[in-house]
Description:
This protein has helices at residues 17-37, 39-58, 64-87, 91-107, 111-127, 131-144, 150-166, 170-186, 201-214, 218-228, 236-252, 256-269, 276-286, and strands spanning 9-10, 61-62. By secondary structure, the protein is mostly helical.
Amino acid sequence: xxxxxxxxxxxxxxxxxxxxxxxxxxxxxxxxxxxxxxxxxxxxxxxxxxxxxxxxxxxxxxxxxxxxxxxxxxxxxxxxxxxxxxxxxxxxxxxxxxxxxxxxxxxxxxxxxxxxxxxxxxxxxxxxxxxxxxxxxxxxxxxxxxxxxxxxxxxxxxxxxxxxxxxxxxxxxxxxxxxxxxxxxxxxxxxxxxxxxxxxxxxxxxxxxxxxxxxxxxxxxxxxxxxxxxxxxxxxxxxxxxxxxxxxxxxxxxxxxxxxxxxxxxxxxxxxxxxxxxxxxxxxxxxxxxxxxx
Length: 294
């Protein structure tokens, strides 16, 4: 779809750069809180802020240039809420946030944010066990990222790797991992979008480790997991995810002692994280069930 021809707003409230900056800073703040404490703890507070602050801005008065920034920033906020809802096991709510974000990203022709929306949709499809839909959205993210910065291409490619692993295709998983790493190595600070600054090397390798684990490639997965262990400590949920990946690797290697030890560490580390998704993952891993996540 083509971007909207007219982005200027004609409402009564004048939208300033400070208004949009406040929105962006709140999105950054709640994104960090989400990573540290879980999506179920702050979602309603952030949603209330957007209702009182962002909604009036969209109905306000702004130039085309400011409208482009505003639409992108509101899309980022909506995607942050979608992630929180997904983490809180509310797929229907997450879907609505995703679709709103996709409409805003399409309006300004932002291919990177469109790729991010498709990645969110792939995660929701995986939650429902729809393998075909997972691949469709992951591949759509790769196509959308074709004209985006290298870091976005890395994000799309590693998501595609996870989708191929989810669908049981090790060869295509490895191919997508190679493209993700190559794109990440070409990314530059000047071109990296603000909304994707959290995708550092430990985060990328953590997602790679999970994809390779799901594909049954234990040796390669162990190397990626070692690289991911430099994950900052304040990303509590991500560090718990790494422990779960390590436990799954140990299970595949039939090392029950290592698997049990890592799961105990995951339980301890997640005690203060309010995330239904994470709690369910730990419960399934503890009971020996397959981890059909994306």
